[in-house]
Write a structure and sequence with these properties.
The complex is a heterodimer of chains A (about 500) and B (about 250). With about 500 residues, chain A is of the alpha/beta class. In chain A, about 45% of the residues lie in helices and about 10% in strands. In chain A, α3 crosses α12. The termini of chain A are far apart. Chain B is an alpha/beta fold and about 250 residues long. Chain B folds into two domains: about 110 residues, no CATH class; about 120 residues, Rossmann fold (3-Layer(aba) Sandwich), CATH 3.40.50. Chain B contains 13 helices and eight strands. In chain B, β7, α12 and β8 form a beta-alpha-beta unit. In chain B, α4 packs across α6 and α11 packs across α12. Chain B is globular. The chains are: A alpha/beta (about 500), B alpha/beta (about 250). At the A-B interface, α1, α2, α15, α17 and α18 of A face α1, α2, α3, α4 and α8 of B.
C-alpha cells in the first residue's frame, strides 16, 4: 500500500475496512438475482463479428451488465487512486512509452541479445513464426518428454494461438492454474478480459460451472466454498503434472531472463512444480535492460487492478536443477504489424487491461461480445491485423471518447488508431455497402449547399435528411430507445435571413 | 476582429436557439460576426465512419466558406475538434491550414482569446450538472481529465462560475462518455442508449435540474434518453446561459 499514501489520495479515499489492493473490490458487490449467463458473439467463419448483437444480449441480462460495469469501474477508480499516489506518474508513462518504442525499433538486436544471453543461462530458445509453429514446437517438446499432463498459467498468447483447442486432440491434458482461467476452461469458454478472465461471470455462474464439472453443490455460491472446492480438486492435478507452461510479461535482453507477474502465484506453480518448464513469449515483450523493468512493474498492476504491485513478480533466470527450461519466441503477425505506420505502436501494449476497464462500451458489452482473443479498445486495433474481414466491424464498437488512450500506461494512442482503422477499412472495401452508400449520399448532400437547403426545408424533410447519421433509414434507429428531437419552427439559417439580412455572407 | 460563425448542421436544424445565443453573445463583445450562408457541415459524420473520400468535398466547402476570417467560432467542441485535429480528407493548402488553426470552440474562444471575466447580464438560479463532450474534454482540453495526473481546471466551469445564482452539482462519473459517439449512436444503438440512460440517471441522482454542455449533440442524445425514462431533467447549451437565458 506504500504507493497509496499520497496526499492527493484524500480526495477519493478507499472505503474503510475493505482491502484496497490486489484483485479485491473496494466496494462490496453482490448480485441480487440469479440470472443465466449471456454468451459471447456468434462466430460464423470469416463473417464480420456482430459485436452490437452480442452486446444487446449481454445487456438483456441486467444483473450481469450491472455487476460487470460496477466491478470494472471499481478497478478504474482504484487505478486513479494509485495514480494520484505517484507524483511522477505521467513521467513514468512517458518513459515506459519511450523504452518500448526504442525496443520495438531495435527489435532484432534485442531479441538476438536475449537469445545469446538466455542460452548462456542454460535456457533453450525456439522461434515460432506463427501459431501453428508455436503449437507444434510445444507439442513436440511435450511428446519428447512423455508428458501426459501440462499445467498452464494464464497467457493471452496461447489463446491467440488457439493452443487449448489444438491440445484437445493431442492426448495431453491441459490444466489452467489461474483461477479465473480455470473457470473459463471448465466452462469451455474463452477469457473475456486479459487480466480478469472470468469477470463477466457472476458467482452463481461459477457455482453452475463447478457443479457441472467438479460436482459441487449447485445451490452454494459462497466464494470461499467455491474457491476451496476448486483448489481441492485441482491441486492434485498440478502436483503430479510433468510440464508447466507460462507466458511472460517482460523479457530482459541484457540478462537473458524473463519476468512473470501474477497475483495467485500460479505462474510459479506452473514453472516450479514439474521438471519441464516452457514459456510462450511474444517477441514484442523484450526490453533492453534490467533497470528498465521497474518502470513497467510500477505501472502494470496500478493500471490493471489499482494495486501497487502484483503479489508475485517472478524472475526466471534458467532451468531448475535437474530440469529444463524452454522459451518459444512467437511472431504470429507481430513483424507485419511493426511495419504498419499507423498501427505499429499497438505493440507497446503490456496487456494491463486498463483500456478495457475504462471503456464504457466494454463495460456494458462484456469481453466475449467482441468474438476475438483481444477484446475492448486494444482489441479493436489489434484484431483486424489477424483477420481484417472477420474483425472489420470491431473498430466501430467505440465512441472514440479517448479515455482508453489516457489510461494506457505506455501511451498508445488507442482511440486515434481505432479511427485510423475505420479509414483503412473504408478504403479497402470492408464497410457494409449500406453504410458506405449512406456516407456517399451524405457527403454529396453536405457539399452542395442548395441541395442541402432544399433537403431540410421542411421539418419533416429535415428529420429525414438531417443529420443523416442519426435518422438515416426508414426504421428510425434513433427513436428505438430515445425520443426524437422536435424540429423547431425555423432553422438558424432562416432566422438569420430574417433577422440579420444585411447582405453579409450572402451566397455568391 | 472579423468572426465567421459556424453553426453545425444539427444545431441549425434542431437547436437554432443555440446558434442565436452564440451570435448574440459574440455581438455583446462588440465583435463583427458574420454567418457565411453557404455553410453546411464540417464533414465529421463521414470521417467518423472512416469515409474520408466522401468527406473531402464537404471539408473543401467548409474552408471556402470560412477563409479570410480572423477567427471561426462554433458552439460545438465536437465539430471544432474535427476541423482543427482531423480535417485531412481535403488537400492541405495554406487556406485549409489557416482555417483549421483559426477555428475555435465558443468556450475556449471566450476563455482563452477574449479572456472574458464577467457576464453581467447572466443569471441562472438553478442546480446544473456540467457535461463535457469527449472531444472537447480530451481533444480540445476544455478541462483536466480524470485519467491523467494533472492540475484540476475547467474552462466551461470557469465561465459558468461568473453567472449569478448558478449552482453546480457533481456526478459520480464526470468524464464518462454519454454514448452519443456520432454514427455510433445508430450503428450500436443498444450500448449507446444504455450509456445514455446511465448518464442521465447520474445527473438526476446528483440533484441536477439542468444539464449544461458546450455540445448539443451529446445533449440531444441525453435529452432523448431522459424523455424516454420520463425524467424531468432539462438541457441547455452553455451559450444560452452565458447569453443571459434564465431558464
Amino acid at each position: 500500500m506504500s504507493g497509496a499514501q499520497g496526499s492527493d489520495l484524500n480526495r477519493n479515499p478507499p472505503r474503510p475496512g475493505r482491502l484496497d489492493h490486489a484483485e479485491g473490490a473496494s466496494v462490496p458487490l453482490h448480485s441480487r438475482v440469479r440470472e443465466a449467463q449471456p454468451r459471447g458473439a456468434v462466430i460464423n467463419g470469416d463473417q464480420p463479428i456482430n459485436q452490437a448483437e452480442a452486446a444487446e444480449r449481454f445487456m438483456a441480462a441486467p444483473e450481469h451488465e450491472r455487476m460487470h460495469d460496477a466491478r470494472l469501474w471499481d478497478l478504474r477508480q482504484k487505478r486513479d487512486r494509485q495514480m494520484h499516489g505517484i507524483t511522477e506518474w505521467e513521467d513514468l508513462r512517458r518513459l515506459a512509452s519511450e523504452i518500448k518504442e526504442h525496443a520495438l525499433t531495435h527489435l532484432d538486436h534485442y531479441l538476438e541479445q536475449f537469445e545469446t544471453n538466455a542460452r548462456a543461462n542454460g535456457i533453450h530458445v525456439h522461434w515460432a513464426q506463427d501459431a501453428d509453429e508455436h503449437n507444434a514446437i510445444i507439442l513436440s517438446l511435450l511428446r519428447d518428454h512423455g508428458v501426459k499432463r501440462l499445467i498452464k498459467s494464464k497467457s493471452m498468447l496461447t489463446e491467440e494461438c488457439g493452443f487449448r483447442d489444438f491440445m484437445a486432440e493431442s492426448g495431453v491434458e491441459v490444466v489452467e492454474t489461474d483461477l479465473g482461467e480455470r473457470i473459463q476452461q471448465l466452462d469451455d469458454e474463452a477469457p473475456s478480459h486479459v487480466v480478469v478472465p472470468a469477470v463477466h461471470k457472476l458467482r452463481s455462474d461459477v457455482a453452475d460451472v463447478f457443479a457441472r464439472t467438479l460436482g459441487t453443490d449447485p445451490n452454494d455460491d459462497d466464494v470461499h466454498y467455491l474457491t476451496e472446492q476448486q483448489r481441492e480438486k485441482t491441486r492434485p492435478l498440478i502436483l503430479d503434472a510433468q510440464a508447466g507452461l507460462t507466458g511472460a510479461n517482460f523479457v530482459v535482453a541484457e540478462t537473458g531472463t524473463f519476468v512473470v507477474c501474477t497475483n495467485e502465484g500460479n505462474a510459479d506453480l506452473s514453472a516450479n512444480t514439474p521438471p519441464l518448464q516452457i514459456a510462450s513469449i511474444g517477441i514484442e515483450k523484450v526490453i533492453p535492460r534490467l533497470e528498465d523493468l521497474p518502470v513497467f512493474v510500477r505501472l502494470l498492476s496500478r493500471s490493471a487492478l489499482g494495486s501497487p504491485i502484483t503479489q508475485y513478480t517472478s524472475h526466471f533466470r534458467g532451468p531448475r536443477r535437474g530440469g529444463e527450461l524452454h522459451v518459444v519466441l512467437v511472431d504470429n503477425g507481430r513483424s507485419e504489424r511493426l511495419g504498419m505506420e499507423q498501427f505499429w505502436t499497438s505493440l507497446k501494449c503490456i496487456r494491463c487491461g486498463a483500456c478495457m476497464n475504462t471503456c464504457p462500451v466494454f463495460r456494458r458489452s462484456g469481453g466475449l461480445s467482441y468474438g476475438a482473443t483481444y477484446a475492448g479498445p486494444i482489441g479493436l486495433i489489434i484484431d483486424p491485423t489477424f483477420n481484417r474481414h472477420r474483425y472489420s466491424s470491431l473498430p466501430f464498437s467505440s465512441t472514440l471518447n479517448g479515455s482508453c488512450t489516457n489510461v494506457c500506461p505506455v501511451k498508445i494512442n488507442i482511440h486515434e488508431q481505432i479511427a485510423g482503422w475505420r479509414r483503412v477499412l473504408a478504403e479497402t472495401h470492408e464497410l457494409p455497402l449500406m453504410k458506405k452508400a449512406m456516407m456517399r449520399e451524405a457527403g454529396h448532400l453536405l457539399s452542395h449547399p442548395a441541395l442541402y437547403r432544399a433537403a431540410i426545408a421542411t421539418a419533416d424533410s429535415a428529420l429525414k435528411h438531417l443529420p443523416r447519421f442519426m435518422v438515416y433509414n426508414r426504421l428510425n434507429t434513433w427513436g428505438h430507445g430515445r425520443e426524437v428531437p422536435a424540429p423547431p419552427r425555423e432553422t438558424f439559417h432562416q432566422w438569420y435571413a430574417a433577422n440579420r439580412a444585411s447582405g453579409q455572407g450572402e451566397p455568391s | 476582429m472579423r468572426i465567421g460563425l459556424f453553426v453545425p448542421c444539427y444545431i441549425d436544424a434542431f437547436h437554432p436557439e443555440v446558434g442565436i445565443a452564440t451570435l448574440q453573445l459574440l455581438e455583446r463583445f462588440g465583435l463583427d460576426v458574420e454567418y457565411p450562408r453557404n455553410q453546411t457541415c464540417c464533414g465529421q459524420p463521414m470521417t467518423n465512419t472512416g469515409c474520408h473520400a466522401e468527406s473531402a468535398a464537404t471539408e473543401a466547402l467548409f474552408v471556402r466558406n470560412f477563409t479570410g476570417y480572423d477567427y471561426v467560432v462554433a458552439p460545438s467542441g465536437s465539430c471544432v475538434h474535427h476541423v482543427r485535429c482531423d480535417m485531412d480528407a481535403v488537400e492541405q493548402t495554406d487556406d485549409v491550414r489557416q482555417v483549421r488553426a483559426r477555428t475555435y470552440e465558443l468556450v475556449e474562444f471566450l476563455h482563452d482569446i477574449l479572456k472574458v471575466d464577467a457576464f453581467p447580464w447572466a443569471e441562472f438560479p438553478h442546480r446544473v450538472s456540467l457535461h463535457n463532450n469527449c472531444n472537447a474534454l480530451r481533444g480540445l482540453n476544455h478541462a483536466s481529465m480524470s485519467e491523467l495526473r494533472e492540475p484540476a481546471f475547467s474552462k466551461p466551469a470557469d465561465l459558468l462560475a461568473r453567472v449569478r445564482g448558478l449552482e453546480f452539482v457533481h456526478i459520480q462519473r464526470p468524464d464518462e462518455c454519454c454514448g452519443f459517439g456520432g454514427t455510433f449512436s445508430v450503428f450500436e444503438k443498444g450500448v449507446s442508449e444504455k450509456m445514455g440512460y446511465d448518464k442521465v440517471r447520474d445527473h438526476s441522482s446528483a440533484g441536477a435540474a439542468y444539464v449544461v454542455s458546450a455540445d448539443s449533440s451529446c445533449m440531444m442524445h441525453q435529452q432523448g434518453c431522459a424523455q424516454r425514462l420520463d425524467m424531468p431533467l432539462k438541457f441547455i447549451h452553455i451559450a444560452q446561459i452565458l447569453n443571459g437565458a434564465r431558464a
